[in-house]
Amino acid sequence: MIFDKKAELNVLINLAASDKSVADRESKLIYAIAKANGISKEEVEQMISNPKPIANINSLTQDEKFEHLYYLIQLMKMDGQVFRSEVVFCEQIANKLGYKKGVVAEISQHVYSDPSITADRDMIKTKADKFLKN
User: Fold this and answer.
1) Which SUPFAM superfamilies does the UniProt entry name for this protein (predicted)?
2) How confident is the model at residue 75 (pLDDT cuts 50, 70, 90)?
3) N or C: which end of the chain has fewer CB within 10 A?
């Protein structure tokens, strides 16, 4: 299966809206990720106003699952406030992605809310891989 960037963006939109509103910084990250992946502003606006239920993500590769988790955690931290509902949502998605409980807490300390701050993704992926279910 080819990874569907719109489906990924839909998950991010669902996370952003999990606390009942999409904060400006969250919205900016969603638009930035969309632009980087060739998704128009109009398409994003449509997706935000009509988010789809989260599709089956079990067929993703491990690298795709990690990237998904990384962006979810980055978005969760984007508005400077981490609500319990966002953490729970991230944990639910991490579980669906095949990670054990605790992965969100473990790797979120290494993921920055500012996308211009580069993180050591290889190190973070290594830590996340320790939480994979098998």
Assistant:
1) TerB-like
2) confident
3) C
